[in-house]
Amino acid sequence: MLLILAKIITILVALMHLYFMWLEMFAWTTRGKKIFRNFPPELFEPTKSMAANQGLYNGFLSAGLIWSLFIQNSIWATNISIFFLGCVLVAGIYGGISVSKKIFFIQGIPAAIGLVLWITLWFASS
């Protein structure tokens, strides 16, 4: 049951980062304006390439999380999940401190929950 829950959280975090990737890479000047209402509207166009770069990194995080679910060796799958969820958590903490606390709650908390589950599984298998 714990393994299923860990995988569900991992999928949720991966899907969130796929959405962030899409938003930042392809919808920054359209949908982005509706999501980031506190960001000055006149800055969306000039920051389009910066946002796309951020989106690419979110895509890499998502790819790593999805990859972890297809690894057959349970030790490696756990280690890769822990690594990528740790990256997401660090990004969520940094975003929460430097940009908005909301980032920590949206990005950091789900990653932290996933980390706790995977680390619990890791210790249980040792």
Written account of the structure:
- It is a single chain.
- The chain has one domain (2-27, 47-125).
- The chain has helices at 2-26, 31-35, 48-68, 74-98, 101-125.
- The longest helix has 25 residues, at 2-26.
- It has 126 residues and is mainly α.
- The protein is elongated and about 55 Å long.
- The two termini are 18 Å apart.
- It contains five helices and no strands.
Query: What gyration radius follows from the Cα positions, in whole Å?
Result: 16 Å
Shape: elongated
Number of strands: 0
Total of domains: 1
Low-confidence stretches: none
Our estimate of the beta-strand percent is: under 5%
The helix fraction, in percent, is: over 70%
Helix segment count? 5
Distance between the termini: 18 Å
Mean pLDDT: 96
Order of helices and strands: HHHHH
Coarse structural class = mainly alpha
Would you kindly provide a brief summary of this structure?
With 126 residues, the chain is an all-alpha fold. It is built from 5 helices and no strands. The radius of gyration is 16 Å and the shape is elongated.
Architecture blueprint of SSEs:
Blueprint: H1 2-26, H2 31-35, H3 48-68, H4 74-98, H5 101-125
